[in-house]
Design brief:
The protein is mostly beta strands. About 5% of the residues lie in helices and about 50% in strands. Strand 1 and strand 2 (about 15-25) form a beta hairpin.
Length: about 140
Amino acid sequence: MPTVNVTMAAEIGSTFKVSASHAVTVDAYDVIKVAVPVPANAGETTTVQVQPGTEAGQVAFLMISADVYDAGLSYTAGVQGGAHALDAPHVLVGAGSVGFLGTSPPTALVFTNATGKVVSVSIVVGRKAIPPNVA
């Protein structure tokens, strides 16, 4: 089974440093690269299918990055969750943090692009092939 090794670090000037690392074992992972177009009409969105599972806890890792970070680029993960501005990379490690998206689990991300230019988005999703609550 693949292991997703995540290491994060933050530095504030020369006075503060903190880092964290975590390993998540998954059964499968997908790497998705899409170009989110400028919509022809206001309100048009781009839907990206990210994984087939439907059970809570199935997605254990989700990373969304782009070649341009802008508050005009946002996504939703389902009808329950609100829009999330992709103004920086989004890295969600563990089923608990993926749950912050407001849907269990996200099967698609719906992007709204109000940046005025095509944006290249990369999505990495790590998941369990068998839902965690199924014996």
